[in-house]
């Protein structure tokens, strides 16, 4: 019953809007209607430049007055959004791998690798190997990253970065694919 009432009310509202628009169309040309709805740009170039200069000064003042904590939060939020964009993107970028994002996380905190390694209780050498793509992180390290970030960078997010790395490796490792073809005796004779 409620849904029917809502439908009837919306239908009546649409009819009133269409009726009003038809009355406006009778009195004005399409160009006049468009001019009334679109804000004309009356600023001169010098006015725009003055406004932009004032806006830049305002932004600079805001940035300078920001506390170190707020700056760190801003950097971390920017990193989190970058990671989410990368994870949700269908494309793989060679320079965006687990170590790249881990290094960006550490840099966003504004601490040294050695201090970060101590904070999550791993050897600095192991951290360096993960950052430089010489070793994959273990599950315990990913969970420690989750805990260290107070769940702002959840373990699932770090695992998804690893998944994307692994997917690219599987798709583009032609040498391994060719090597493994020798071990397959009979394959399907069709493809979907």
UniProtKB/TrEMBL annotation:
Annotated TM spans: none
Gene Ontology terms, MF aspect: DNA binding
Top-rank taxon, per record: Bacteria
InterPro entries per UniProt: Cro/C1-type_HTH, Lambda_DNA-bd_dom_sf
SUPFAM superfamilies, A to Z: lambda repressor-like DNA-binding domains
HTH cro/C1-type domain boundaries: 102-145
A Pfam family of this chain: HTH_3
Protein known as: Helix-turn-helix transcriptional regulator
